[in-house]
Design brief:
By secondary structure, the protein is an alpha/beta fold. Helices cover about 30% and strands about 30% of the residues. β8 and β9 form a beta hairpin. The longest helix has 14 residues.
């Protein structure tokens, strides 16, 4: 098995292929994300679709894990979780929770390891549309046979930098409508098991949460 380019112990940086104003936002406002995103919905979906496991027998990759709140919940449920995030502060908080955490983007992750489950909750919303399909291909390659992929995406059209919470730091957002997303997922050989729509009133935005199977 090849080794990851990024060292989970040191969190050393590789080529962070990520919008740096977006990373700066998450470094600066990490406290705002110390909770499970879409908490009950995500927890219910994960519990419904993820197989029961003896502790540490099923490995999970959380892409754009933030401070590790969701990963920590999954870890305590008995799964072996690896967190991946480009924010140095977010990785530090993951490690404080006792989680395996790597600083970097999905492009930085070089491994032949496969994961039973991968999550990208509110992380692929920052991927430029031109790169989105390649990210989905990468996820597919990282999943074990019949593996699960949980992803949340912003509904709509367009892309660009915004400051929806008026924090004074802009983040890059990408919007893709449901029909285009489903087309990409199915063309890349995923089966769509379930879709949940979530409204985030403080951002004035709607998300779709997809459960996909390889």
């Amino acid at each position: 098995m090849t080794q990851d380019i990024l060292d989970p112990e040191t969190g050393s940086e590789g080529n962070l292929d990520f919008n740096f104003s977006t990373i700066d936002y998450y470094d600066k406002f990490a406290d705002d994300f110390e909770k499970i995103p879409f908490d009950k919905t995500i927890q219910d979906l994960f519990t419904t679709y993820s197989p029961k496991t003896e502790k540490g027998c099923i490995n999970v990759l959380d892409v754009g894990s933030g401070p590790g709140s969701l990963a920590n919940w999954i870890n305590h449920a008995g799964y072996q979780v690896t967190c991946l995030d480009p924010s140095k502060e977010m990785v530090r908080r993951c490690k404080q929770k006792g989680l395996i955490a790597i600083q970097g983007s999905l492009d930085d992750l070089k491994t032949d390891q496969q994961f039973h489950t991968i999550l990208a909750i509110s992380s692929f919303i920052h991927v430029p549309k031109a790169d989105f399909r390649d990210h989905i291909k990468k996820i597919y390659s990282l999943l074990s046979p019949s593996g699960l992929f949980f992803i949340s995406m912003l509904l709509g059209e367009g892309e660009g930098c915004e400051d929806p919470l008026e924090k004074g730091v802009k983040r890059y957002f990408s919007y893709i409508n449901n029909s285009d997303l489903v087309k990409i997922f199915t063309e890349e050989l995923f089966s769509v098991l379930e879709v949940k729509k979530i409204e985030v009133k403080k951002m004035n935005k709607c998300f779709d949460i997809y459960v996909l199977k390889k």
